[in-house]
Design a protein that fits this description.
Layout: E1 6-9, E2 12-15, E3 21-24, E4 29-32, E5 42-49, E6 52-59, E7 70-79, E8 82-90, E9 98-103, H1 108-112, E10 115-116, E11 119-125, E12 132-138, E13 143-149
Antiparallel strand pairs: 1-2, 3-4, 5-6, 7-8, 8-11, 9-10, 9-12, 12-13
GO cellular component, one term: membrane
Keywords: Glycoprotein, Membrane, Signal
InterPro entries: CD2/SLAM_rcpt, Ig-like_fold
Length: 157
C-alpha cells in the first residue's frame, strides 16, 4: 500500500495533499510544506513514458535547526597575570550539531581561539589585547554563533 502525493499525466497534474505539497512545474520538483519529523521516510518518484518507467527512491531526512549556543566556563585559573580557561559551547536543540571555534580578529589571538569540538582550552595574558573567541554551532540546515570576551576571565558567569 502506498500513498500518492501527486499524479501528472498529459500535461495536467493532480495534488492529493494540496495544503501540504507544492508542485513546481518548471523543474518537476515537489516541495513538502511545513516539514515535520513525521515526513521523514522513503519516497518514490516515478515517471512513465509509454511502455517505460523511471523510478527513484528518495530518503527524506528532517533536521531541527540549532538554537543559539551558550558558552560556559568549565574551569578558570588566574596565575601570574595570565588566564587559563576551559570553555564549553552548547546549543540546547538541533540535530547532528558540530562545533568550531575561531576569532574574528586577525593576528596572534586568532590562533588562540582556533579549535573544533564543543570544548576550547585557552590561555592568554590579561595585559594582552582584547580576545574574542567565537563558537559556531552548525548542522546541515543552520548555523549560529556565540562570542566569549576575554574580560570575563575575572568575573563569575
Amino acid at each position: 500500500k502506498k500513498k500518492v502525493l501527486l499524479r501528472f499525466s498529459s500535461g495536467n497534474f493532480t495534488e492529493y495533499e494540496q495544503d501540504r505539497m507544492r508542485f513546481h512545474r518548471g523543474n518537476f520538483s515537489l516541495e513538502i510544506l511545513n516539514t515535520s519529523r513525521e515526513d521523514e521516510r522513503l519516497y518514490e518518484y516515478s515517471v512513465s513514458k509509454g511502455p517505460e518507467e523511471e523510478l527513484w527512491h528518495i530518503q527524506l531526512q528532517v533536521f531541527e535547526p540549532v538554537t543559539d549556543p551558550r558558552i560556559r566556563i568549565l574551569h578558570r585559573e588566574l596565575f601570574n597575570g595570565s588566564c587559563s580557561l576551559s570553555l564549553l559551547c552548547a546549543s540546547e536543540r538541533g540535530d547532528e550539531v558540530s562545533y568550531s571555534w575561531d576569532s574574528r580578529d586577525s593576528g596572534d589571538t586568532s590562533r588562540i581561539c582556533s579549535g573544533n569540538g564543543s570544548v576550547l582550552n585557552v590561555s592568554y595574558s590579561l595585559r594582552s589585547a582584547d580576545l574574542r573567541c567565537v563558537c559556531t554551532a552548525r548542522n546541515r540546515v543552520s548555523s549560529r554563533d556565540a562570542a566569549f570576551d576575554s574580560s570575563q576571565c575575572g568575573t563569575e558567569q
